[in-house]
Amino acid sequence: MKELIENLLKLQTLEFDETAGARREGRIAELRAQIPAQILGHYDRLVARGKKGLAAVRNEVCTGCHMHVPRAVILTLMHGDDIQLCDCCGRYLYLPEQAEIQKTAGREKGSGKPAKRNAPLQTV
Predict the structure, then answer these.
(1) Going by C-beta distance under 8 Å and a sequence separation of 6 or more, which residues neighbour residue 5?
(2) Across the strands, what pairs with 92?
């Protein structure tokens, strides 16, 4: 299943990349031949509506619709047993590689200021 998601991700990258060269069409046809028709049909319906067909899951949130993804779906993605769809937006979900997670975590840290703590409640 991991190979299937990787092929879909490569296909999405090629189809949404406007600067790709002349070999683009041949590579797209090659990838489409490796993906089952039912999965490709669902992907194409999303693309026809102007949406990307895949979305990464980061911090238990779908990056396509920004809705919470159930932990059971994330565990299934971790095991690689089956492909999963987002319940809200219908995109195929995938877990980004560890290196990509570390890069984005470094960008999202913000200003570097420590978080403010709330003062403990006083009982009378």
Answers:
(1) 54, 83, 92, 94
(2) 54, 85
pTM above 0.85, yes or no: no
* Residues 63-79: tens digit of each pLDDT: 999 999 999 999 999 99
Question: Phi/psi of residue 84, each to 5°?
Answer: -130, 145
H helices within 1-124, ranges in order?
Answer: 2-16, 24-34, 37-48, 71-79, 98-107
| Phi, psi of 50, deg, nearest 5 | 85, 15
CA–CA gap between residue 91 and residue 39 (Å, rounded): 11
- CATH top class, domain 2-99: mainly alpha
Please choose, from the candidates 86, 53, 42, 50, the residue with its C-alpha nearest in 3D space to the C-alpha of residue 67: 86
**pLDDT tens readout for residues 26-43:** 888 999 999 999 999 999
CA angle 102, 105, 106 (to 5 degrees): 90
- For residue 25, give the nearest of 16, 15, 33 by alpha carbon: 15
